[in-house]
Amino acid sequence: MTGEALVVCEAVPDVGAFTLRAVDPAADAELVHGWMNDPEVAAFWELAQPAERIGAYLREQVGSAHSTPYVGCADGVPMSYWEVYRADLDPLRHHYPARPRDVGVHLLLGPSAYRGRGLGAVLLREVAQWLLRTDVYAERVVAEPDVRNERSVRVFERAGFRLLRQIELPGKRAAFMVRERA
């Protein structure tokens, strides 16, 4: 493994401790491959590919100068995939008025048993608070879910994000959403 788990929240209802650990492409490729090939996830992540391609994608994420991939764990059990990135350094910055130290977030809940229970909003709220707490220079967390993914947009709204506008990105029309530092 690539390091200790980061405790985001010690007591999430129905989950227990929620932690993030850095992705290990070799160890996590099969796990993330299974999640990315779930039809509900694949419809929006568009990474329904063989495990070798997912491994390469994870290596690319780990090697990025501005993005960090994590596996989210509920009481030590892997159940989500997260990408945390400097949105002000990402190509996304060309599609909205970026501010210095904007933090971007992508997420997916892996096993279907974790979906449809309101857990995504709870975890996203905790992760956004954690990101703002641990980066004193960041003033907001941004996200750009596909507008067709109404379920995801609602999750972001319930987690305290607000829709600023729709933006055109390569491959999708996105709901540009922001959660400001309180």
TrEMBL record:
Membrane-spanning intervals of the chain: none
Gene Ontology terms, MF aspect: N-acyltransferase activity
Protein name per UniProt: Lysine N-acyltransferase MbtK
Gene designation: iucB_3
Keywords: Acyltransferase, Antibiotic resistance, Transferase
Function: Acyltransferase required for the direct transfer of medium- to long-chain fatty acyl moieties from a carrier protein (MbtL) on to the epsilon-amino group of lysine residue in the mycobactin core.
Residues forming coiled coils: none
Ranges for domain N-acetyltransferase: 18-182
Pathway assigned in UniProt: Siderophore biosynthesis; mycobactin biosynthesis
GO BP annotations listed: response to antibiotic; siderophore biosynthetic process
Domain of life of the organism encoding this protein: Bacteria
PROSITE patterns for the chain: GNAT
The organism of origin for this protein: Streptomyces rubrolavendulae
PANTHER family named among the record's database cross-references: LYSINE N-ACYLTRANSFERASE C17G9.06C-RELATED (PTHR31438:SF1)
